[in-house]
Amino acid sequence: MYVGFSFTGEVRDPFRSVVSALETTEIPILAVDAPSSWNIEDGPPSSGPGAKYNPEALISLTAAKPLVKFFEGRHFIGGRFLPPSVAEKYDLDIPDYQGDDQIVETAQTGQKSKAEKVLKMAERQDM
Fold first, then answer.
1. pLDDT tens across 39-73, in order?
2. Angular region, 62: left φ>0, alpha ψ -120 to 50, beta rest
3. Distance, CA of 22 to CA of 45 (rounded, Å)
4. Fewer CB atoms inside 10 Å of the end CB: C or N, the chain?
5. How far is residue 80's CA from residue 62's CA, in Å, rounded to a whole number?
């Protein structure tokens, strides 16, 4: 399952019920770039929908966002979108990709069994 939308401020309808469902689902969730309802700088909201949401895996696009300090699952960085000169200009921490890989896993902090479910789910969906 994936849901993507950006928020400013508190989660509003009709997304409150969607984010609440993400918090309680048994289905492994793979978030892309930022978990739904999370603030890029401050992570999950302190209360309300999304406060207890922490997906099993996160794929950050291009570079890790500050919110990863709150993330507890497997973290990947994907995409070689920026030339080294841009990464240096903005002081971005870009991973060392091996060969022609487009994705790198960072240090694992989450539960391996849940993360493996996410990867299997992604394989089934031909992601």
1. 999 999 999 999 999 999 999 998 889 999 999 99
2. left
3. 14
4. C
5. 6
Mean pLDDT value of segment 96-111: 78
Distance of CA 63 to the CA centre of its chain: 11
Q: What per-residue confidence (pLDDT) applies to 3? A: 46
Q: How far apart are CA 102 and CA 125, in angstroms?
A: 18
118-123 contacts at long range (C-beta below 8 A, 24 or more positions apart): 118/28, 118/29, 118/30, 118/55, 118/56, 118/57, 118/73, 118/74, 119/57, 121/27, 121/28, 121/30, 122/30
What pLDDT is recorded for position 71?
94
